[in-house]
Amino acid sequence: MAIHNSKCEPVQVKSRRRMLKQLGIGFGGIATAGMLGRSAPVEASGGILSATHHLPRARRVIFLFQSGGPSQMDTFDYKPELNAKHGTQLPAEVRMGQRLTAMSGNQTSLPLVGSPFKFQQHGESGIWMSELLPHMAKVADELCVIKSVHTDAINHGPAVTLVQTGSQFPGRPSIGGWISYGLGAENEDLPPFVVMVTKDKGGQPLVSRLWGSGFLPSKNQGVRFRSGKDPILYLGNPSGIDPQTRQRMLTALRDLHEMQIEKGANPEIENKISQYDLAFRMQSSVPEATRIEDEPEHVLKKYGEDVRNPGSYAANCLLARRLAERDVRFIQLYHQGWDQHGNLVKSLSRQCQETDQPTAALLSDLKERGLLEDTLVVWGGEFGRTNYCQGKLRNDNFGRDHHPRCFTMWMAGGGVKGGINYGKTGPLCYNIAENPVHVFDIQATLMHLLGIDHERLTFKYQGRHFRLTDVGGKVVHPILA
C-alpha cells in the first residue's frame, strides 16, 4: 500500500526503454521468468499518484451494479402510508410538476401502488427489508442503506453512463478507470480493473464504454472476464505455441516498439508494451484466479446452486471474492433485468431470487476472511421506480416507471458504518425528505474511502482538467466509520 501523507505529487514518467535498461532485463524476459518459475525483477505498476491524499479505509471496491433500476419501495424503503393509499391518485403537491418519462407522462391517471411484499426489520439495527431478500436480511447489520440517492437522468442510457462515468454523455473515463489511473495495481499479475456481466440476461444493453478508459491511457480500461473456458478473449497461446516461443515473439515486438520510441515518444506505445507484458503473465494468473473448483463444498453451497453455472451472478460474486483476495483494485459486476415497467411482482421476485443469496454470501465470505474491513462493496442501479403504476393498475399485474428523484443504494465494509440508514424519503416515496445524496456524492465518497480526494485526481484533456465528479460531489461523512 502507498505511503500516506497530506500531499500527493504525480510520479515522474519514465520511458519504458530507460526502465528496462536500468533493470538490465528485457520485457519478454520479465514475463517469461514468472511463467517459467525463475525469480526476476518485475516493473512496479503504480498509478499517477505517488501517495494517496489521505489515509484510506478501503484497498479495493466491488461494485454490484443492478442495471435497470431496482424498485426501492419493494426492497429497502418501507412505505406503509403508500400501501394505505394504494389506488388513489398521486397528489399534485407531491409531484410538484416534475417531469415524467414518455412512457407514463401521457397517462390521464397516476394511481399510487403500494408494495405487495411484506416487510420486516432485521438484525440488531432493525433495518427494514422486504420478504424478497431473506438472505440479505441475515447480513443487515453490515449494510449502510442510503435511501436518499438522486440523479439527473430519467432514461437508462444517460443514467447508467452518469453513474459509471460521471457524465450523461459517452466518452468519459469509467469510475474503475479513474481508480486504476490514480492508484494502479496491487497485483502485478492481474488487471487492476475487472468487469463481469451476468450472462443470458435481457434488459437494457450494456456497452464496453461503461468500463472504458475514455481519454485516460488505454491501460486503465476494464478487462472483461467472460464465462467459459477462456475468461479473457485471445489470452491463450495458439496451438503449437509454447511460452518460450511466445517470449521470443514478445521480445521482437518490444524491439519494434523501442524503434518507434526512438523516433518520438508516444505514451500509447508504452501502454501497449505494458499491456502485452501483463497479458503474458495473465496466461497463468487468470486460470488460477477463476478456478472455482478449488473452493470447498461449503463455500460453493453458500453462494447457491447457480454458482456452478459459469457467468451467472452467483458465479461472478464468487469470482469477485477470489479477485478481491488477490488484490484486484476495482471489481465491477453488472446484472441486468431490473426494468419492471410491467409484471413487476413476478419479474422483481425473479431478480431478487437470482441476486439475494449470492450478494449476502459475498458479504459474509469477505467478512469471514477478514477482507470486508478493507473492501468497499457498493450495490445499486441507475435510478429508482415510481410510486404510481405505469399503465392500468391491476392487482396481479402492474409496473413502475423510471424515477430519478429518489432511490436506494447501499454500501458495506471498507470504512462505512454498518447497520444504519442514511437519508429519508417522503411518506409516499416520491421526493427526498432528509439528507439528499447525489450520484456524484456516491462517487466522491467511494474515492475518499480509497484515499483519493475526488477534486484532486484530474486529467487535462482538450484544455480542461476533468475529474470523475465533474464540478459536483461531496463526501457523505456521516456514513463513515
Describe the 3D structure.
With 481 residues, the chain is α/β, with parallel strands linked by helices. The chain folds into two domains: 58-231 and 298-479, Alkaline Phosphatase, subunit A, CATH 3.40.720.10; 238-289. The protein is 30% helix and 16% strand. The protein is built from twelve helices and 19 strands. The protein has helices at 16-23, 27-35, 80-84, 92-95, 156-165, 175-183, 243-263, 267-289, 297-303, 313-324, 344-368, 439-449, and strands at 60-66, 119-122, 127-130, 143-150, 193-197, 223-224, 330-335, 375-380, 384-385, 390-394, 397-399, 402-403, 407-412, 420-422, 424-425, 432-434, 437-438, 459-461, 464-466. Strands 1, 4, 5, 6, 7, 8, 13, 14 and 17 form a nine-stranded mixed β-sheet that branches. Strands 2-3 form a two-stranded antiparallel ribbon. Helix 2 (27-35) packs parallel to helix 8. The longest helix is centred in the last third of the chain and has 25 residues, at 344-368. It is globular. The relative contact order is 0.21. The model is unreliable at 1-45 (pLDDT under 50).
